[in-house]
Amino acid sequence: MIEWIMNLAPAWAQAHAPALIVLLPLLAAPISAFLPGAGRLAWLLTVLVTGLCALLSIVLLGQVQSIEGGAIISYSMGGWAPPHGIEFRIDSLNVLIIMLVSAIAFLTSIFGWPTVKAEINEEKRAMFFAAFQVCFMGLLGVASTGDAFNLFVFLELSSIATYVLVALGSGRDRRALPAALNYLLMGTIGASFYVVGVGFLYAATGTLNMADLAVQLQDVGGNRVVQVGFAFILVGLGLKAAMFPLHQWLPNAYAYSPSFVTAFLAATATKVAIYALVRFLFSVFSLDFAFEGMSLSLILAPMGIAAMLACSFQAIFQLDVRRTLAYSSVAQVGYMLLGISLGTAAGVSAGLFHLVNHAVIKGALFMAVAGVVLTYQGTRIHDFRGLGRSAPWTMTAFAIAALSLIGVPLTAGFQSKFALVSALLESGWWWAALIVVFSSVLAVIYMGRILEAVFFRAPANPQKAHKEAPLLLLIPLWVLVIANIWIGVQGSFVAGLANDAAASLFIGGAR
Fold this sequence. Notes:
The protein is 75% helix and 2% strand. By secondary structure, the protein is mainly alpha-helical. The protein has a domain at 289-511. Strands 1-2 form a two-stranded antiparallel ribbon. The longest helix is centred in the last third of the chain and has 32 residues, at 345-376. It is globular and about 70 Å long. The two termini are 33 Å apart.
């Protein structure tokens, strides 16, 4: 299919794909804001643009894989060659993230219209889709750029649009406004830490191009300025990635946002921040720096383990399904950080594999919850009682995604957790492997509470009519559910992409 899409794409699209994938939503956003039709035309344009971006991401994947060992695509802006000019740099690592963000954006865009129509005032819908496209563009820009400062610019463009999208949830729940404000404050702190860290690196090296930074840092060495810059960047990106204990903005942002926004953010936002963290840890810096090796084992690993345990326990005691899933997301970030903290190709590959799988899992879960919000107007576990009989298609999809989150065999979650445990045992971290298993048991408890209410409890309101979610919601929901099963049964494609991404970070594919 990849070759077929590449052959279908015109030569100009293949030549300019790194720029087009960011430029399309950037140009579509202001057009969407002024389209008539109560937001319907803006939605159709959003579906078209995200679909084209998904196709362009496949073109980029084909280009990267066209050379054995993986190619690096360097796209210079305005004819100015790097490191002096702005560069988009695509390799095996970020093409995986670009594909993930584009695919999730396309599926959530399809499912989004019924929920936006129900939750967003008519006069704000066109602006809503415009803000979404800015957010989408920013995430793709973070994943594509080869410039440390432009990464900050794209990160902030995405974040500012996200604050607006979260605040628009106030039409359904007024608590979305303080959630958006908290997100704004924490996001601003994270961005400030990041840009200060980049400033320290620029002072030490005189360059902002990330590939050139890697070369210059080898000559400069691990002096105090570089160490301080590294620390600021680690904290800034850690906050954006909801790294424990910098995650306090996430539960309310997910719980009170519009359903469309929650499904998209849960599957993409923290994943892109983790990508940026990996890029700096392994591409810009190097494990040859002793201080970085110490931070991987003494900072990231404990934070990842603390997230897996503390946030899983918090999820158990939540009464709202969306808050349960939100705390679960922070716990799953812990799995990714634990794999990355190993500092090995196998560990990073397992972390990236779980990153992709969690996006597919959590996207499906929040889409199913959106169907319940749309048809039954409830998000408490009590409101889910008996929905297995009232909305079997929606709840069966939710159940499969929940089993994948737990890590039941033949699901995507099992594949990536098994890869993580294998990497931990390979490195002699048997105690961490036991914690991964224990955390999965906690997931059985907090997801089991919901599934028990759905399938084994009488309906909260026996008079409530049986009603499924709209077809526009069910189709992308089941695409993600089928993807969960496909990766669980035949996960070699996604695992291979994760292996290639990790190998690109290490000399000779391993360290």
